[in-house]
Design a protein that fits this description.
The complex is a heterodimer of chains A (about 325) and B (about 350). With about 325 residues, chain A is α/β, with parallel strands linked by helices. Chain A has 11 helices and 13 strands. Chain A has helices at about 55-65, 80-90, 110-115, 125-130, 145-160, 175-190, 205-210, 230-235, 255-260, 285-295, 310-320; strands at about 15-30, 30-40, 45-50, 70-75, 95, 165-170, 195-200, 215-220, 220-225, 240-245, 265-270, 275-280, 300-310. In chain A, the strands form 3 sheets. Chain A has a 6-stranded mixed beta sheet with strand order 5-6-7-3-8-9, sandwiched between helices. A 4-stranded antiparallel beta sheet of chain A has the order 11-12-10-13, with helices on one face. Chain A has a 3-stranded antiparallel beta sheet with strand order 2-1-4, covered by helices on one side. In chain A, strand 11 and strand 12 form a beta hairpin. Chain A is elongated. Helices cover about 65% and strands about 5% of the residues of chain B. Chain B has a 4-stranded mixed beta sheet with strand order 2-1-3-4, sandwiched between helices. Chain B is elongated, with a radius of gyration of 29 Å. Chain B has about 350 residues and is mainly alpha-helical. The chains are: A alpha/beta (about 325), B mainly alpha (about 350). Chains A and B meet through helix 2 and helix 3 of A and helix 2 and helix 8 of B. The complex binds adenosine-5'-diphosphate and magnesium ion (MG). Adenosine-5'-diphosphate binds near residues 31, 55, 58 and 59 of chain A.
């Protein structure tokens, strides 16, 4: 696959790497959750691990966090490793897990003071509350917080140690759109403050919005790696044309596909539930040709739309599946 | 802010304490329930003055003789009516005048009826002119320390120390594990030993309140005695609480769900509720199971508490139960640390 060209071929660890993974493998019984992951994240980068549920994102990130033992491979964080420097690493990284429920009956402030007490240095609980915009909820019990506020509290507990490296596992899963945007703003701020952030998500818009570089993960493997632009360009077309035709028995789908692919500027064609998808370089030259082709065959269009290619389309192009097939 | 308040052990202990106090049910079961139970039992089993026993006779003369005894109240009934009241338990004995003398109708399997028989016969014989060959005086004893409430208070104390330690640790730890909070804690630089130590510290602070409230109540309301040294009693309470905390830690060391934990806790405590002599002496159980009964931590705790409070025994006279409690403190703790599941 042409995308492998985007995989880094630097084998030596760059001094500035905040995180370096080599040949990471982890199995749970028969399930190979992580199947040979190599990755390097630079200091100051906001890096996204994007993939469907079960891709192995949480397992990968928890190995990085020193919470899950690995079967094979090597993990280096900030030039240190878990075997020898566990205590120092715990002081220097911030962690938000996918599904922590903090005690309902403690207040926001009490929870943050508790977590702050574990770190030798860091920001004050008050500062963490301000950063997470939880001032009004300072004295509120955790049990009374909304989903978004709980998630911001989790973020604040990851920030109290003023970490150099921040791990966020699905920070916005299950939140409503407004709460998600609120959290994105918070991540933006942290990014601009120069922190290295590694986050996982199964929302492609989130990865596009937040991440400098993205690794697309599927079935335990990284199948593409690069900036969002690079990844989209790698699919070939920057635009996606989608259409459906009125069904009739005499459509020769295979022939139609061949003809469509022959049109100049079309990089790929696929059909998903009756919907044709073309990835194309430029709309203004290709779309008229598509219409002509339909006309020539006497087919009636029932749907027609175009959009700029997204990471979703990259995932579809690479795996033939949608990101959110479950 | 002071240094102490910023320390993680302080913060962890404070969090434990807050979480406990904000759980009204837990506060009820640990502080209020034992007091209510002691109060109920104290009322139900209080020592009443000896009962006056109701009896009847078929003639007025016999009735007067019976009524002369302070232990009896007597009335006159004909034989049919008397037999009927006897069967329903309204009277304990019916004295029937016969040509030869007197016949007593009573149930000799009923202790009250047998006492009535003795009192009635004495009264009737005395009325007929019998003189006692030896004169005798009565001196009555109602000593604190030999009543049921005195017996049951150390039992309830032991039971309460067991429940608060096992539930307190067991539920909190398993809940934290189930909610992935435990995992979040060990993902931070928190020293793991401090997490467990915070449980023990908050337990010891609560212990002071719990024991003083309960024993204070027993002392003020029922005059339960403290024959032994109060320092040694305090030491025994701490030892008991630590032994059960250790057991609670072991029970909670691997369970992933609250249901599993609560099943395990009940399984551990049930034999002790039944066998350890909270409400009646453990020596009533068959000899074959006595070694098992005595190896249970609650039996050891209650034996030691009763020895101290009721018999004024010193620790050097309570070596056996103390050693058993120490073993229950050390062994489950060591095993729990080995097998504890932090995530
Ligand atoms: N503790 C575990 N025990 C068994 N299987 C697990 C465990 N954790 C994850 N898995 C399996 O490993 C695979 C990857 O899971 P995960 O890393 O959680 O994926 P993601 O975070 O991308 O959704 C899944 O098939 C999941 O069922
Ligand atoms: Mg996950």
């Amino acid at each position: 696959m042409s995308l492998t060209a985007l995989q880094p071929d630097r084998k030596a660890t760059v001094p500035g790497a905040a995180l370096a993974l080599r040949g990471l493998k982890k199995a749970f019984g028969d399930v190979q959750a992580v199947d040979g992951v190599d990755l390097e994240v630079q200091s100051g980068e906001c890096f996204g691990l994007l993939g469907p549920n079960g891709a192995g994102k949480t397992t990968t990130i928890e190995i990085c966090e020193g919470l899950t033992e690995l079967d094979e491979g090597e993990v280096k964080l900030l030039g240190l490793d878990w075997k020898r420097n566990a205590n120092e690493l715990r002081q220097r990284i911030g962690i938000q897990l996918q599904e922590t429920q903090f005690p309902d009956k403690l207040t926001v402030e009490e929870t943050l003071r508790l977590f702050r007490s574990f770190f030798k240095r860091g920001i004050s609980a008050d500062e963490a509350i301000r950063t997470a915009q939880l001032e009004e909820k300072r004295k509120a019990r955790v049990g009374t917080l909304s989903g978004g506020q709980k998630q911001r509290l989790a973020m604040a507990t990851a920030l109290v140690g003023d970490p150099e490296l921040l791990f966020l596992d699905e920070p916005t899963t299950g939140l409503d759109p407004q709460a998600r945007r609120h959290l994105w703003d918070l991540v933006d701020e942290l990014k601009h403050a120069g922190r290295t952030i590694i986050l996982t998500t199964h929302y492609m818009d989130e990865a596009e919005r937040l991440c400098d570089r993205v690794a697309i993960m599927d079935q335990g493997k990284i199948i593409a790696l690069g900036t969002v632009r690079e990844l989209i360009a790698s699919v070939g077309g920057e635009h996606i044309v989608e259409f459906a035709v009125k069904s009739s028995t005499d459509i020769n789908t295979a022939d139609l596909a061949t003809q469509l692919k022959a049109i100049e500027g079309v990089h790929s064609h696929r059909i998903d539930a009756g919907l044709h998808q073309l990835s194309v370089t430029s709309l203004h030259t290709t779309v008229p040709r598509v219409f002509e082709e339909m006309e020539a065959r006497g087919l009636t269009l029932t749907e027609f739309r175009t959009h700029s290619a997204t990471l979703e389309d990259v995932f579809v192009a690479l795996t033939g599946r949608n990101l959110r097939d479950e | 802010m002071s240094k102490l308040q910023d320390s993680s052990l302080f913060q962890l202990t404070a969090a434990r304490f807050r979480l406990f106090l904000r759980e009204p049910e837990a506060v009820f079961w640990i502080f209020i329930f034992p007091i209510l139970l002691a109060f109920g039992l104290g009322i139900a089993f209080r020592n009443r003055p000896a009962d006056v026993l109701p009896v009847a006779a078929t003639t007025l003369q016999l009735t007067q003789s019976l009524a002369a005894d302070k232990g009896l109240t007597a009335k006159t009934l004909d034989e049919t009516e008397g037999m009927r009241e006897l069967t329903i338990g309204a009277i304990q004995l019916l004295a029937i005048q016969t040509p030869q003398g007197v016949t007593y109708q009573y149930d000799d399997t009923n202790p009250d009826a047998r006492i009535s028989r003795m009192l009635a016969d004495r009264a009737i014989q005395a009325a007929a002119g019998r003189k006692d060959p030896v004169s005798a005086q009565n001196s009555l004893v109602h000593e604190a320390g030999s009543r049921y409430i005195d017996f049951v208070v150390p039992g309830l104390l032991g039971m309460n120390l067991m429940g608060s330690a096992i539930w307190g640790l067991g539920f909190s730890i398993v809940e934290a594990r189930q909610k992935k909070l435990l995992k979040r804690m060990v993902a931070s630089p928190m020293p793991r030993w401090q997490y467990l130590m915070a449980f023990l510290l908050s337990r010891l602070i609560m212990l002071v309140i719990e024991v003083i409230a309960f024993l204070g109540f027993a002392r003020l309301v029922f005059g339960v005695p403290f024959h032994g040294s109060l320092w040694e009693l305090a030491l025994l309470c701490i030892l008991t609480s630590l032994a059960f905390s250790s057991l609670g830690l072991l029970i909670a060391s691997r369970a992933r769900t609250m249901e599993a934990a609560s099943g395990l806790m009940n399984l551990a405590m049930l034999p002790m509720w039944i066998l350890s002599g909270v409400f009646f002496s453990a020596s009533r159980f068959p000899a074959v199971i006595q070694p098992f009964v005595h190896a249970l931590p609650l039996t050891a705790a209650i034996d030691a508490l009763r020895g101290n409070m009721l018999q004024g025994m010193h620790l050097n006279q309570l070596i056996m139960p103390t050693a058993i409690l120490l073993a229950w403190m050390v062994i489950p703790f060591a095993v729990a640390l080995k097998i504890f599941r932090w995530r």
